[in-house]
Write a structure and sequence with these properties.
It is a single chain. By secondary structure, the protein is an alpha/beta fold. Helix content is about 40%, strand content about 15%. It has 18 helices and 18 strands. The protein has a six-stranded mixed beta sheet with strand order 5-4-3-2-1-14, covered by helices on one side. A six-stranded mixed beta sheet has the order 6-7-8-9-12-13, covered by helices on one side. Strands 17-16-15-18 form a four-stranded parallel beta sheet, sandwiched between helices. The model has no long low-confidence stretch (mean pLDDT about 90).
């Protein structure tokens, strides 16, 4: 009875770090061989990292990718691993390049190669190149149009890459006609809330269409604004799930596939939304900081919910000893806010210092004779300058604590609270920020640890504290209402008329949409941050700054 043992290598890679990626692949192959695997499957573009964007168009990068694959082939032989079928993603170039206007320079391709016994057992080029949301693959890849089948222990194994599943009804029909026994699919599928359920539903449908198990291997780790959540799994033709790897963690696991044996089902793991988002943000921070050569972060700690959540995320990502916070009280900073900042530092163990900003702010406002909003903004800008000065002096990477609700309506000060190299919660609406805080504290209690976030930071009315008695609702609707409007307008592209028809107050709708449309220039200047929603600001939502069109027209 033929069977094959397949290792799912759910690993983290770094764009352009060919040596580290290749070394990780070789080490994983050693581990898979020790577990008696016949085949090991790596994620999409693992050797090069993903996404590579316009690096794909550089001849030097193309050559380095091809050289790295060749070196891996040689190392597998020297390490006594030539018996393994190594299914690995990388960047290659079209065998018959046809330079012409409108074709990506060098004709790069998104490829999976199967290395075996010192040669190439199969080669597959991604057919469907996504060109929506965060993806621009039509910009820098040339599609393939051929299937690839190789044989292991008498079983016929087919290949596809990520988007080929989403668009691949015809491909599944063709592979079914080929009589394949297993379909292997390497993926670089970034996290967004509820996407894991969508993946499972899709793969069950495709497994039924092709009539065989699908081995879905997804990468894990952060890459700029994307976080890959792993969650690799195997689904059989009858829709039964027989293996699922965890989210947001590297893991190598081996499964035995036997087409004639009954499937042993497992239950799908479905973690709470807040837990998934928290884990995604932790991975995003960790990999952005570490992969960019930093080791510590710095942020302003106000005692409010946003900076409290960002500080706690950073502690989970990097360890409290690598998190530096600055309390920067002004004349309007409440004592309870100062106390909450100090309490969080005590709870987490992060490094906290105090730099009063009143003398610096007063110098600006009296020299330039400012009052009103201009004077309020000076406080934020003095804080931003203070953080950047400390960053330049001590080498910490600055985190911006703004959330998606504020970013949407422009409730932030350019060159003030927008300064930073990374913005961990820029894709998290305010209501979800509170949910994250409650989940993290509840998790701490469940494992016998100290909840990191002071309860008063969660329960008190949010305020920028830039003038006496100020609260956010002086300028904004209640966040429950605001977030509902923003979710519908920003993430679903609904019009003012549709929002009003759905029951929202017409005046509130018109005011919020006007604020969103007018704040595009601010969003363009905001730091990058991890995508966790169906549509994040940045490369996921691209609108002109100069535009006479308004969503409330």
């Amino acid at each position: 009875m033929p069977q094959v043992r397949i290792a799912l290598a759910q690993l983290n890679c770094t764009v352009g770090d060919f040596d580290s990626n290749r070394e990780a692949a070789l080490e994983a192959c050693m581990g898979a061989s020790a577990m008696d695997a016949n085949v090991i499957v790596f994620p999409e573009m693992f050797l090069t990292g993903y996404p590579v964007e316009d690096l794909a168009l550089r001849p030097s990068f193309q050559s380095a990718s091809r050289a790295s694959l060749e070196l891996l082939r040689e190392q597998l032989v020297l390490a006594g691993l030539a018996h393994l079928y190594v299914v690995i993603g990388h960047l290659d170039v079209a065998e018959h390049d046809s330079p012409c206007h409108g074709r990506p320079k060098g004709s790069p391709q998104n490829v999976v190669t199967v290395l075996h016994h010192g040669g190439v057992a199969a080669r597959y080029v991604k057919h469907h190149l996504p060109n929506y949301g965060v993806f621009d693959e039509f910009r820098y890849f040339v599609p393939g149009d051929k299937r690839a089948v190789f044989e292991v222990n008498g079983l016929r194994v087919g290949l596809a890459i990520c988007e080929d599943l989403w668009q691949g009804q015809q491909l599944m029909a063709d592979y079914k006609a080929d009589g394949i026994d297993v379909l292997i699919v390497p993926n670089g599928s970034p996290f967004e809330l509820d996407k894991d359920d969508t993946r499972h539903t899709l793969v069950r449908e495709r497994a039924s269409q092709v009539g065989c198990p699908i081995v879905y291997v997804n990468m894990v780790g952060g890459q700029d604004e994307l976080v890959f959540d792993g969650g690799s799994f195997i689904t059989h033709a009858d829709g039964v799930l027989s293996m699922q790897l965890p989210q947001f963690a590297e893991e190598i696991a081996v499964a035995t596939l036997d087409p004639d044996a009954p499937t042993a089902p497992i239950a799908s793991v479905d973690n709470p939304d807040a837990q998934q988002v928290w884990q995604a943000l932790v991975v995003g921070i960790r990999d952005y900081v570490i992969k960019n050569g930093a080791s510590s972060v710095l942020l302003g700690l106000s005692g409010g919910i946003d900076s409290a959540v960002v500080a706690s995320l950073a502690c989970d990502a990097l360890g409290a000893s690598n998190v530096y916070a600055v309390s920067m009280p002004s004349d309007y900073s409440s004592q309870h806010s100062r106390d909450d900042a100090a309490d969080l530092a005590k709870r987490t163990g992060l490094n906290l210092r105090t730099v009063p900003i009143a003398p610096m702010s007063t110098l600006f406002t009296t020299t330039l004779v400012m009052q009103g909003t201009a004077a309020e903004n000076v406080q934020a800008r003095v804080r931003g300058t203070t953080l950047m000065a400390i960053s330049n002096s001590e080498g910490h990477l600055v985190l911006a604590p703004g959330n998606k609700s504020e970013l949407a309506v422009g409730y932030s000060t350019v060159y003030g609270d927008t300064v930073g190299a990374y913005a961990p919660i820029k894709d998290v609406f305010k209501v979800m920020v509170w949910e994250l805080a409650r989940w993290r504290n509840a998790y701490a209690l469940s494992v016998g640890a100290v909840p990191p976030i002071p309860e008063s930071s969660i329960t008190k009315a949010p305020s920028a504290e830039l003038r006496p008695g100020q609260v956010d609702t002086d300028s904004l609707p209640d966040y429950e209402i605001l977030d509902a409007i923003l979710h519908t307008y920003v993430e679903q592209d609904r019009s003012a008329e549709e929002l009003i028809a759905a029951g929202f107050d017409p005046h509130t709708v018109m005011r919020v949409l006007s604020m969103v449309d007018a704040a595009e220039w601010k969003r363009r200047q905001y730091p990058p941050g991890p995508k966790v929603s169906i549509r994040a600001f940045g490369r996921d939502r691209r609108l002109p700054i100069t535009s006479a069109w308004r969503g409330n027209s």
